[in-house]
Amino acid sequence: QSFKVLPLGIHGGLEESNLSAYLAANDTSQQYVALDAGTLYSGIKVAMQNHSLPTEAPEKFIQNNIKAYFISHPHLDHVAGLIQNSPADSKKTIYGLGSCIESIDKHYFSWESWANFSDIGEKPKLGKYHLDTLQKDSSIIEPNTGLKITTFQLSHGEPFKSTAFLVTNQSDNSILYLGDTGADTIEHSHSLHHLWENIAPLITSKKLKAIFIEVSFPNSQPDKLLFGHLTPRLLNMELADLEELTNAAALKNLPIVITHIKPDGNNPATIKKELLNKNPFQVKWIFPEQGRFLKF
Ligand SMILES: Nc1ncnc2c1ncn2[C@@H]1O[C@@H]2COP(=O)(O)O[C@H]2[C@H]1O
């Protein structure tokens, strides 16, 4: 079994109709998990307009085909689509690390900022969403899709946390989706190194089919203004760490999907140029488009 991923939102800011959200499923399935949910409805509408999805009301697709949400961290550009669409959504589970679930409960499903559609927190609890806390370095099976999700903690601007989700299907193939993350050196952390140690064997055995990782800013962004994000240079530094745990041949042609570009000014073109000009491990950079399937 191979994977298909439908990007519903690809940017890391500004364009509120196109913010981090990726639907993942087995190639033959129409039952998706959402990896972040910054934009839902607008991305589904684009996918329907370009015939990537059959035409129906986007809210029907959200109700019937998105089976669970895995949220990397509670920043608005990763949850706004879920909150906005919650009144029309169906019953399902929102998964995240403890700090993420607490924040969603406290800051969004609070009755003050939005109705409490969850099953915890401020009464009355409408109970549409089961808020489920994931443990780092452990796996669950998402019951509606059969996909195994393994959770790793990331650092996103000390002391804030984010999450990487390793999605594994019944054929033991995987894709890795990282939420926002800074580089270990800048974050004074070992989170990425720990993640690389865990996935290195999957790369050498060719079981890891793609990595989704952020590059928010171009190389000109000063370290003190990174706010827990990567640049092309820092991503290549992290890939060097991963390469030491695998081997140069293992990274060659590995699809690396670049997420969360902040689209200010010429940044998207600059980031693409910087990545294409410097690709020491000969990975396959992929620049996703809203509403267009990626297959792995
Ligand atoms: N100290 C700061 N000063 C200005 N902007 C910030 C600061 N910290 C975070 N941000 C912005 O807030 C945004 C929250 O989402 P992001 O992490 O994608 O990107 C972050 C930056 O754009």
Structural class: alpha/beta
Helical segment count: 9
- Low-pLDDT segments: none
Please give the largest β-sheet. 7 strands, mixed
Distance between the terminal alpha carbons, to the nearest Å? 10 Å
Bound molecules: adenosine-3',5'-cyclic-monophosphate
- The portion of residues forming beta strands comes to 25-35%
Structure summary, number of beta strands:
14
Series of H and E elements:
EEEHHEHEHEEEEEHHEHHEHEE
Describe the model.
With 296 residues, the chain is of the alpha/beta class. 29% of the residues lie in helices and 26% in strands. The model has no long low-confidence stretch (mean pLDDT 98). The site of adenosine-3',5'-cyclic-monophosphate (CMP) has 7 residues, from loops.
Topology overview:
Elements lengths: L2 E7 L11 E6 L5 E6 L3 H9 L8 H8 E5 L5 H10 L6 E6 H11 L20 E6 L3 E4 L6 E8 L5 E8 L5 E5 L5 H4 L3 H14 L3 E7 L17 H14 L2 H4 L3 E5 L7 H11 L6 E3 L7 E2 L1
Parallel strand pairs: 3-4, 4-5, 5-6, 10-11, 11-12, 12-13
Antiparallel strand pairs: 1-2, 1-14, 2-3, 7-8, 8-9, 9-10
Helix pairs in contact: 1-2, 6-7
Bound molecules: adenosine-3',5'-cyclic-monophosphate.
